[in-house]
Amino acid sequence: MTISWDNPGTGGGREARVKGEANTNGDGAAPGPVTVDLRLSVNGRRHPITVDTRETLLDTLRERMDLTGTKKGCDHGQCGACTVLVGGRRVKSCLTLTVTVDDRDITTVEGLSADGVPHPLQAAFIENDALQCGYCTPGQLCSAVGMLAEVADGWPSAVTPGLDGEVDLSKLADEEIRERMSGNLCRCGAYPGIVAAIGQVAR
Amino acid sequence: MTTTGIRSVGGALDRVDALEKVTGRARYAYENSPRELVYAFPVQATVAKGEIVHVGVDAVLKQPGVIAAIWHGNAPRLAPSDDDELAVLQSRRVAYRGQYIAVVVAETPEDAREAAGMLRVEYAAEDHDVDMRPDHPRMYRPDHVNPNFQSDTQRGDPDAALTTAPVVVDHTYSTPAEHNNPMEPHATVALWDGDGLTLFDSTQGASALRSVIAPLFGMPPAQVRVIAPYIGGGFGSKIEVHPHVVLAALAAKQVGRPVKLAVTRQQMFAITGYRTPTVQRVRLGAETDGRLIAVTHDAFEQTSILVEFAEPTAIVTRMMYAAPHRRTTHRLVRLNVPTPTWMRAPGEAPGMFALESAMDELAIACGVDPVELRVRNEPAKDPDTGLPFSSRNLVACLREGARRFGWAGRDPEPGARRVGRTLLGTGVAASTYPTYRAPSSARVRAEPDGRFTVSIAAADIGTGARTVLTQIAADALDAPAGLVHVEVGDSALPWAVLAGGSMGTGSWGTAVVRACEALVAELGRRGGDVPPGGVEAAADTSQEVRGQAEFARHAFGAQFAEVGVDADTGETRVHRLLGVFAAGRIINPKTARSQFVGGMTMGLSMALMEESVMDREFGDYLNHDFAQYHVAAHADVRDIEAFWLEEEDPHLNPMGSKGIGEIGTVGTAAAVANAVHHATGVRIRDLPIRLDKLVR
C-alpha cells in the first residue's frame, strides 16, 4: 500500500500526486486529499486502484469501477441497498471506507451469478416477483446470501436468541427470514415475495 | 399473418426486466458516466425565511478539485417559469429551510461534498411560520384542488340535516406530513453538447420533464432529451420537476462538462416533496339504521410560499356514499415550508383515513356491522356528478373480503379479546381510486424476422409497465409475448403521459393497442410481407381519449386488518391484512399482486409509522433519514394478501383495465386504526398510531 498526498499546487488532479509529509505545503492553499494505492479483490478479480481515503467502498464500486449494481439508497447504513459481501459476510458498503478492505474478498451482485447462470436466489426473486423498481434488489440479494450463511453458522437472532451450533436451513421459518432481513428496506413493498424467494432457496 | 390464438393478457408473465434488475445490469440515472464528468454537491439554506446577504465562494474555490461554486450572483439566468421552485439560484430570497442556494462542482464526489460543507453563507433571517393549524388566520380557499377539481362542493342543506339527524358522528382526524422516500434518491446527470441538453434522470415522465426543462433554458423541447429507462421507485415524488434537475443542468452549462448530481436522502425531505399534513373534520348524520342523511368533510392543509399544491383530500367523500345532504371543502395555508407534492393516492389516502374511520365510528354508534353499514350506503349513481358508474363493485369486494377474512360472527365489543399480553382486534375499510386516462402516442415496428418493437415514452417505475405493455401488444399483434420488445423511458420515443394517477396502463395501453392495430392493418395490406427495412405504424390517442363517454370511473376495494396490541406497551402489530379489489381486467396477476400488496404495505406503514416532524424552531423536517423516518420493514409485514374480482367494464379502454398502483394504499390505515379500536377501545384519530397515543 502506498499513501500519497495530492499536490494542490499542480492542480489537484488524481495523476498529480507527490509523496509528502503532511497536509501542508506552505503556500496557503488548502491541503489535497490523501490517496492510497491498493489492490481490491472484487468478484474474484484483483483490481489495482488509487483511492481517496475519504472514499467509501460504495462510491469506489459505483464511481470508480463501474460496478453500479450496488445501490446508494441513504449513504448512512439505514436502508441496506448498498449491501455487499466482504469475506462472505454482509456489510454496508456505504459505511465501509475502501482503504479498510484492500486485503478482503468482496462480492457484489454482479458476482453472484456464475458463468452467466443466475444464482438460485436471483432466479427465485424473478419467479416470486420479489422486486418492483429493483433498486433495493441487489442489496436484498447480497443480504440474503450473507444471511443464509449466518443462519448456517448458527448466529442468533431476535427470533431465536439461543442457537446451538448449526441450523437446519430446510426448517428456516418465514418469521426468521423477516427478522434477519429487516435491515434491507423495500419501499415498493415486495417483502412477501422476497421472503418467499429466500425460503424457497433455503428449503 | 399467423395467429397464435394464445392470449398473453391475464397471464402471469415474469417481469420482463427482472433479470436486468437482479443481476445489477439495470442502469439507473446516476449510473451513467459520460466522459469528462464532474460532480455537483448542493448547498441548502439554513434559514426558513430571509435573504442571502453574502456567499463566501472564494474560500471554497481554493479547495482541492473544486471547479466552480455557483450561486445567485453568478448563476446563468433562466427564463421565467410559472413554477417558482424551478427558479433555482435566481434570487437572494429564501422560501424554506433546505432550499438549494448554491452548488459546488468538483472533480470527485468527495471533493465536491467537502467543499460544499465549507461554504459560508450569511443571511438576513426573518421570522418564519411553519405551523399548519386549521384556525390559522391565513387559511384560504384555493381556486381549485389538484389536478382541477372544485375546492368546495355542496348538495342539499347538510347543516340543517345534521341538526335533525337521529345519529351524528362529528370528529376531527389528522394525518402527518409523509415523505415518499423511493429507495432510489432523485438524481440527474446533465450533459450539454451541440444538439442541446441530455438528462439522465430518475423521473416518472420523460416527455413531461423535457417540456418543463427546455423553456427554462430558452430551447424548444426537441433540444432536450431525457433518458430514464430504470427508475428506483417514485410514488409521486418523481412526477414534478424538482430543483435538483435544474441545478444539474445549470451547473453543467456553467462548467462546460457533464455534471452528476444526486439528492441525498436527507435533502429529499426538503427538496423532492412530501404529502401535506392534513386536519380533517368529518360529520356524518344518519338514521338509526346507519343510512346516511348528511356527510360533510372539511380539509385543512399546507403548501409552500413558492407553489400552491392543493391536495384533494376530501374529494373521495363526494362519490363514496349516498346521502342527500353533503358538503366538502378544502382550505390551504402558505407557510415557509418545503413544497408538498404528489404521494401515492394524493388526497384519497389521507381523505379515506378520515372518512373510513368516521364510518367505523358511525357503525358503532348505530350498532350496525361496519361491512353492512357500507353496503347500506351504496349509491346508485355518482352522488357528486349524477353520472352512472362505469362499474362499481364495492359491495362485492366487501362481501368477498368478509368471506375470505372470516369476518362473520365478529363480536363488535371493543377491548374484549386478549391472549396473554396481546389485545386482538379486527377492522375493515373501503378503498377507491379514480380511473383516469390521458392522451399518449406509441409506435410499433414489425421486423422481417417476426419480432416486434413497441416504442413509447412511458415510465416503468417498478409498476411492471414494460411487462404489461408487452402483453397488451402481444395480444393486439396476435403474437407471442416473447417476440415483442417494449422500449420505454426516453423522451426520444413517442410522447406519453407520465406515470401518475394510476393511469399508465390505461393511457399507454390504449396507444399501444391502436398502434398495433394500425400495424396489423398495414401488414394486411401488404399481404403479411415485411420488407428488409421493417414496417412501422404509430398512433396518437388524443382524439379518442378526449372523446370518451362521460362516466364516473373508479376502482373499488375492501381492506380487512387484524392487529395485536401489547396491553402494557401499546406496541401494535398488524397480524393480517387482506384486500379484495375490483379494478377491471387484471393484465398480469403476478405484477398486479405486487402492486396491490405494495400499496397495502405503504398503507400499513402510514398507519403505524410514517410521520415527518416539523421543527418549529428551525423550520424543517427534523427526522430526515431512515433511522428516524420509519417505513415498514420485513418484520413489520407478516401476512398480507390481495385478491381481486373478475370485473368486466366496457367503458374504460381497449384492455378493460383500471389503475391499480394506488388503490392498495387507500383505506388501509383506516382498517388498521379501526382494528386497533376494536382491540383496545382506544380510537386513534391522529396518524400514525404510535404507542404513546395508546398507553395512557
TrEMBL record, chain B:
Keywords: Molybdenum, Oxidoreductase. Residues 23-127 form the Aldehyde oxidase/xanthine dehydrogenase a/b hammerhead domain. It comes from the Bacteria. SUPFAM superfamilies: CO dehydrogenase molybdoprotein N-domain-like, Molybdenum cofactor-binding domain. It holds the Pfam family Ald_Xan_dh_C. PANTHER family: ALDEHYDE OXIDASE 1-RELATED, XANTHINE DEHYDROGENASE. This is Xanthine dehydrogenase family protein molybdopterin-binding subunit. It comes from Sphaerisporangium corydalis.
